Fold:
Amino acid sequence: MAPRRCVVQDCNRVADNELGISMHSSPTNGSVRMQWKRFVCQHRKNFNPKGSFGICSVHFTNDCFIRAVHIKGTERRIKPGSLPTVWKNVSVSLSERSRRMMMNEILAEQEQDMNVEDVELEENAVIQADKELQAGDGVQTADVVQAAEVVQADEVMQADEELCDVDRV
Structure:
């Protein structure tokens, strides 16, 4: 079974017919396998595969391939003895999982920043209201006094109604 991902550092590509990327299994033994491994080790110092490993077609030149014709269509195969040599044009593409993890981290940071801003806004509003009350701003002080008088009047009216209800019984 062919490997699923390219082992080259920062590549992680998978076979994709639409993009024209094919995966190629390492030779099983011999000097060609050692040269494939050396190519990978140029950027992955601790690379030491136990079995087969895969390198995608991006790391080979076009003359390394042959087309095999099958009933289902054509297949791009690597010529025997071909070596990976292409490092340039290897974009650092994030895997879908890495991309999701990075987006989740960014969103969490933004949400945390927004929560901190909301708390700061609320605290500033309370502080401002306290300052205005302490300063004795005429309009707000009058509003507070008027509200307190309304509450007291409501309490008196409720007490009077309760007394009237007791008298009727």
User: Anything to note?
Assistant: The longest helix spans residues 96-135. The mean pLDDT is 76. The radius of gyration is 37 Å. The beta strands are 23-25, 54-56, 65-70, 73-78.
